Amino acid sequence: MTINDYLDMEALDNILEQWAAATHMIAVVLDDEGNFLSNKLGFSRNNVEAFGESIEVDDVEVATVVGGPLDEDTDEEVVEAAAAILVAAIQNLLEAGYRKKKYEEAIASFNEEIAGAAALIKELAGKSQGLKKIENKQNILALNASIEAARAGEAGRGFTVVAHEFGKMAHESGVINDSIQKTLQKLDASIKSYDAE
Q1: Quick one: pLDDT at residue 53?
Q2: Which of 1, 127, 178, 182 has a CA between 20 and 30 Å from the CA of residue 39?
Q3: What pLDDT is attached to residue 185?
């Protein structure tokens, strides 16, 4: 991310203009490559450069404030104090813009992750419905097997045990599937409530 991604140029120029009007000094802001970020306001390095202060954001030097008095007779302490105030104001502006941009990026990333999770929940819900269909078929097969075992009488006794176990397995898979569906519904509701905010 570069300084141009988060710098509020209008606010920067406003700070510089108000500071210049209040102090009768002039200053500009340069990026880390020495390019002007702010309005030059008649600035020339040949005639005004009493101070130059670096500005860091997130421990990276991103800009330099360069300036000085228009009147050569201005007291050096006054220049230093005015420069400190200006640098602090610009530092705060840049840090606020940087934090805001990072926050916006984090929110966008989080929203993408939530959308991905919602899509996975929808996919799992569809697969869960497929399991419900299989459970229903297993129950029908178990019932049919029990009916055929009863018709066979004594000869179908072993088949009755198999039919019973098959029905029990269908019931257990149905209980697990119901639990999965309830969990997916809770997750879906949670994601929808986040989206509503």
Answers
A1: 92
A2: 1
A3: 84
So where are the chain's domains? 3-106, 114-196
How many helices (H) and strands (E) would you count in the chain? 4, 3
Architecture of domain 3-106: 2-Layer Sandwich (3.30)
Could you give the strand order of the β-sheet that contains 25-31, starting from the edge strand earlier in sequence? 25-31, 60-69, 51-57
Q: Quickly name the fold that domain 114-196 has.
A: Helix Hairpins (1.10.287)
pLDDT of 46 strictly over 70:
no
Q: Are strands 25-31 and 51-57 parallel, antiparallel or unpaired?
A: unpaired
The DSSP result for 18-73, as a single string, is HHHHHHTEEEEEEETTS-B-S--TT--TTT--SEEEEEEETTEEEEEEEEEESSTT
| Alpha-carbon span 79 to 76, nearest angstrom | 5
Quick count: other Cβ atoms within 10 Å of Cβ 101? 14
